[in-house]
Automatic annotation (TrEMBL):
Leader sequence residues: none
Transmembrane domains' residue ranges: none
Protein name as catalogued: 3-dehydroquinate dehydratase
Name of encoding gene: aroQ
Assembly with partners or alone: Homododecamer.
High-level lineage: Bacteria, Pseudomonadati, Bacteroidota, Bacteroidia, Bacteroidales
PROSITE patterns xref list: DEHYDROQUINASE_II
Active site: Y22, H98
Keywords, alphabetical: Amino-acid biosynthesis, Aromatic amino acid biosynthesis, Lyase
Biological process terms in GO annotation: amino acid biosynthetic process; aromatic amino acid family biosynthetic process; chorismate biosynthetic process; quinate catabolic process
Gene3D superfamilies per UniProt: Dehydroquinase, class II
Length: 140
């Protein structure tokens, strides 16, 4: 089982970025924990601040044997028709995740351009949203 965790813009700053919303843990430490929790899963982590690079990496799942994607597209969630189109072109399931509960926040975060293309959505559980995303894919 090969799972890709993908983070979009500004999520490289986890641990220092608005810690009251996103917590103090870094993604590198969390991914290391996830790899220990799921030794049977080949877990790849990819982060980019660039929309096109995210699309290139997602398209690569069409040929690299990836079985599922846990995607936190950051603010591109709310704006990117291109990411939505890309997800619709993939053959593996994509789980949309958010660290914060976007529905408790500003109204512009209530709209997602990718949700309809995703298998399901997990939001509001801190970094554990990613683990729940993996669980969802393992049970898919
Ligand atoms: C986020 C929520 C988005 O609205 C925001 O732009 C992010 C992070 C989250 O994980 O809670 O960058 O996706």
């Amino acid at each position: 089982m090969k799972i890709l965790i993908m983070n979009g813009p500004n999520l490289n700053l986890l641990g220092q970025r608005e810690p009251s919303i996103y917590g103090t843990g870094t993604m590198e430490t969390y991914v290391a924990e996830l790899r220990k929790l799921y030794p049977e899963v080949e877990l790849e982590y990819f982060q980019s601040n660039v929309e096109g690079l995210m699309i290139d990496r997602l398209q690569a799942t069409l040929r690299d044997g990836t079985n599922g994607v846990v995607l936190n597209a950051g603010a591109y969630t709310h704006t990117s028709i291109a990411l939505g189109d890309c997800i619709r072109s993939l053959t593996c399931p994509v789980v949309e995740v958010h660290i914060s509960n976007v529905y408790q926040r500003e109204e512009y975060r209530h709209r997602s351009m990718i949700s309809a293309a995703c298998k399901g959505i997990i939001a509001g559980f801190g970094l554990h949203s990613y683990r729940l995303g993996i669980e969802a894919l393992l049970r898919d």
